[in-house]
Amino acid sequence: xxxxxxxxxxxxxxxxxxxGIDQDAGxxxxxxxxxxxxxxxxxxxMGPLIEALTAIYRxxxxxxxxxxxxxxxxxxIARLVEPTSKFDSLRVIEEMGMExxxxxxxxxxxxxxxxxxxxxxxxxxxxxxxxxxxxxxVPDLAHG
Length: 144
Known about the structure:
7 helices
């Protein structure tokens, strides 16, 4: 059973998908992946991912709740893509093809994110999206 599991993990007991690619086009063996497999990656566009995450961010009401705060937006998007530190989040943003804010700017904004007003605005946006209704045990933060 262990041998079978190792083959599954390695992918050696799986049939190749019929992609219509000429296996002789590359230098690798049939069924291999990666270098020499005959497949060339020409683009690693993250546009669709960025668009989807931005739509969700806006749909949750975060853009309005934060007043369009670009630093907060970048921190949220970066950490959804790769949970990492504040500093490394700038690398993630850059790898996504976006222009990251500076690390100093991130650090300057942190005290604002720790305020009760900022947290209340985010909580209100989420409460409004959740449509908690009048009988919820959570206070209506969206209206005061």
